[in-house]
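Entry 14. Structure prediction run on the chain below.
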Amino acid sequence: MHKATASIEKRIELGMAERLKLDKLPRWVHGIGMGGTVLVLLLFIVVFALYKDVPVWADWVPASEFTNPQYAERIYPDSIFRTRMNTWSNLVYVCFGFYAIGLAIYDWKRKLPLGRGYLTFAPVQTFLFGVAGIYLAISNPVVAYNNATFWINQTSKFLEQVVIIDENQTTITYAFSNFKTDQGLSDSTFVFDVTNFDGAIIDLR
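Output returned:
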């Protein structure tokens, strides 16, 4: 077996914490990741409890998607969280964001050389990624009026058109045509062969 393949198979057999090296992080990094998430969760709970049935959006002009909803979840028009499933699931982004901030501080303290990777060498990018994740998670419930409609050919099963309407009611249309099938490509074309690459291989399966 190729050495790179053996290394990948060995990592797959590891537990989740070992594979992601979570067990090697200082406890204060987990404190930032989980502690920050819990604080935002408590904030969400307090806001939801205070404004659950208060029409705080009464003076806002709703988007057409709101008046003719096509969401896969129920919309609560007179609640602070109009799309509740979407809002609560955003806590995952909050968790990722706080962990990214914790990792950025950890990398900044270690001051690793550029050879260890650019993100560890310049942790400000990881920090900004974390802040952006938290911001999107908190702001998303307010601007959750995006809508995407797909047209799929019933005969060919090919995607023909996508129409996206953003929160500003701007419509963007993507049209797909001239699909070519049976181009004589072998199955091996779509198989990743580790023997064709040198150096470390990062497997994110």
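The CA atoms of residues 107 and 120 lie 5 Å apart.
Filed with the rest of this week's runs.
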